[in-house]
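Writing this down once: the sequence line spells out the residues, with the fold written below as integer tokens. I am pasting one below:
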Amino acid sequence: MNIKRVQVLTTKKEAPWMDMAVLNPAIIEYKDKMIMLFRTKGSEGKAWDDPEAIYPIAVGFGISNDGGETWDFDTSRPALFPKCELDIDKVFVTNKYGKKVPNCANGSIEDPRLFMIEDKCYLTVACRLFPLGNLWWNNNMTRMVPDWTSNEDNPFGKSAKDNPTVTVLYEVNLEKLVKRDYDNAFYYLTHLSNPDFGENRDIVFLPEKQLIDGKMQYVMIERPVEPFRNPYLDAKKPSMVFSAAETFYDFVKEDNKKVLIAEPTFEWEANRIGASAPPIRIDDKHWLLCYHGKQDDKVGYTQNFMVFKDRENDFPELIYHKDERLITVSEEWEKPGKFHIPCIFVTGMVKKDDKLILAYGAADERVGLMTLDYNELLNHLKDNGLVL
């Protein structure tokens, strides 16, 4: 299968908030434009090995007026930047409705994914309550966690001291985003994953509500690192899980409906599997989902596709999940550099006419776009056993 790959963004020395890494981009079409949000890591003028530096993880903005052929990236400032507060009274944010709530995006904002539901644009981001600092030198997620979190009566819960990844949901005003009015483009809504159940990321939504148990509900695909911590799941490794709720605010409840989609099955999925980009419709009954698997630190990540079929009054059924390593590192600029794990990590997918555009991070350092012929891809999946 022919796949065109193009590097579209690298780090910028002149921008200290994106001079260490750019990766894992979201893309979405808006009017005649294509919008990109991408993850960044910056030195903020600190040395690479400074043990006290925060090295903030933020989100940058880019726009294309020609369907993704060329891009204008804003290097003047990030679109979303973590507050990185450590004072207990400052780790809060005002949500869209004017309510003061815990700011789960205070420490870091990672891996943006954009999607539409009911004519509104939303953004999911993997976040931490506190910054990570120089994680590549010291793999300690709690190095910058303040002492007050050891008191389980703190307003952020008993898991605050562990600083797990939770996924946060924003509503996005695309018109303001295009105008680079970042301060008014993002509305904090809520966190979607319950930190008491541990790390949870790679969250995407079906872009349509589904009838489940007699109620129209939002359907989320999540990837808990320890799914067995949830009483409704028994998978042992990071796995893909369907979750349903009538409102976005109900996903953190312990009793919202969940069902296991798939756990690591093939050798190249041995460490974990998770959704990569929000799914798209194939037809009125089927969904196409780009997903990833990781084997280990030597083999790294593989991207492939799953297909789901709608069911009446239930979650969609997984009907295609094969062992082919379809998309892996191939270009010289995709190969590991600073970071040693081979990594192609898709976080955005757009169907444009007969083309399927995948936006991805390469080697945790660069941003790329790959273009596939959509019909060729479907035929390839059918040749491997897909029946629509």
